[in-house]
């Protein structure tokens, strides 16, 4: 059974960045207002995600690590997914491919810790912690050397982790994020975005400033449009902020970071009159729609989506961006 778990685990966790994504999404699902991610050696030796969320009751810790035992979806409507987690296997997978330790405390209860190594579950032990949860994964893929070989350099893996954290931070401006690199034992903060307060556009602008840059945020064009029940909210950068690669395009569907061809294509098309070929606009765009009008399960990593009315969504994005650019004299 442990071997089967290890094989299946590769589908959920293929590299440190995917582990970080699952753990941060769990923290968000738990209602965290502050999430701290610590990485060593590109995540190969250490990934730690600490949150101030609701915690896991000590008696539930073994259950949280059991495959499919705790899925947040009840199966009644697979297309209507509101919380990030719904497969109930991230923790089980991480426990199968690394050395996993969870310390958690529910407010008003005692903290507990549990460890799993190569799928072998230890007993829950008393521990000390503020309310919230810390999940630590050491030596990811130590039990599956073949997967370890597929990882890229520490630097490239750390970059991918940073990208995942920035995208989730962009999606959740009211949550504080910190990313630290403690390679070699010395801690360096590589990203910080303090929790934003107040109304949505102000919060988004503040978060844009932390994630992309203060100057960019100060000059970004506000986007707010709606068509046939689909909403578009966010900021688009002036053409002068374009890049030579599509590295700073943050696109979300119902709050979920996606890397969707239709949306990225529409973003590019919105700028087609003002940007040369090979230049990519910088933007953070939030598409909102009825969860039943979009299928988020197209890709296992949930990065691609399929809209029921792709033409509506594309038209909305292209026209909203052209309108904003025209309003700014472009
Ligand atoms: P899923 O998120 O799909 O339910 P996971 O394996 O990611 O599956 O997590 C299993 C369960 O463990 C969750 O359903 C949740 O109950 C609990 N859990 C995991 N991480 C946290 C966290 N950071 N805070 C509170 N509960 C958590
Ligand atoms: Mg999860």
From TrEMBL:
One of its GO terms (cellular component) is mismatch repair complex. One of its GO terms (molecular function) is ATP binding. Residues 208-326 form the DNA mismatch repair protein S5 domain. Keywords: DNA damage, DNA repair. It comes from the Bacteria. One of its GO terms (biological process) is mismatch repair. Signal peptide: none annotated. This protein is involved in the repair of mismatches in DNA. It is required for dam-dependent methyl-directed DNA mismatch repair. May act as a 'molecular matchmaker', a protein that promotes the formation of a stable complex between two or more DNA-binding proteins in an ATP-dependent manner without itself being part of a final effector complex. Belongs to the DNA mismatch repair MutL/HexB family. This is DNA mismatch repair protein MutL. The chain holds residues 20 to 349 of 614 of the full protein.
């Amino acid at each position: 059974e442990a071997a089967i778990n290890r094989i299946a685990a590769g589908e959920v966790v293929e590299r440190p960045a995917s582990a970080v994504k699952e753990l941060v999404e769990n923290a968000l699902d738990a209602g965290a207002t502050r999430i701290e991610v610590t990485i060593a050696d590109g995540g190969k030796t250490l990934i730690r995600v600490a949150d101030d969320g609701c915690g896991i009751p000590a008696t539930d810790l073994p259950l949280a690590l059991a495959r499919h035992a705790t899925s947040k979806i009840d199966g009644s409507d697979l297309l209507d997914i509101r919380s990030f987690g719904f497969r109930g296997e991230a923790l089980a997978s991480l426990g199968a491919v690394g050395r996993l330790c969870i310390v958690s405390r529910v407010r008003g209860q005692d903290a507990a810790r549990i460890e799993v190594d190569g799928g072998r579950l230890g007993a829950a032990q008393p521990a000390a912690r503020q309310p919230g949860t810390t999940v630590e994964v050491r030596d990811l893929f130590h039990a599956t050397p073949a997967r370890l070989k597929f990882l890229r350099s520490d630097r490239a893996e750390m970059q991918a982790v940073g990208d995942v954290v920035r995208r989730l931070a962009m999606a959740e401006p009211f949550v504080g994020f910190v990313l630290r690199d403690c390679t070699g034992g010395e801690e360096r903060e590589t990203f910080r975005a303090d929790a934003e307060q107040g109304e949505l556009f102000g919060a988004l602008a503040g978060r844009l400033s932390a994630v992309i840059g203060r100057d960019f945020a100060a000059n970004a064009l506000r986007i707010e449009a709606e068509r046939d029940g689909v909403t578009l909210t966010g900021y688009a950068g002036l053409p002068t902020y374009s890049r030579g690669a599509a590295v700073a395009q943050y696109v979300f569907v119902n709050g979920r970071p996606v890397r969707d061809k239709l949306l990225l294509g529409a973003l590019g098309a919105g700028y087609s009159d003002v940007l040369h070929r090979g230049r990519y606009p910088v933007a953070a765009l939030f598409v909102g729609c009825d969860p039943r009008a979009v299928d988020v399960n197209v890709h296992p990593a949930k990065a691609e989506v399929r809209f029921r009315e792709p033409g509506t969504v594309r038209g909305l994005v292209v026209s909203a961006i052209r309108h904003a650019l025209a309003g700014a004299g472009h």
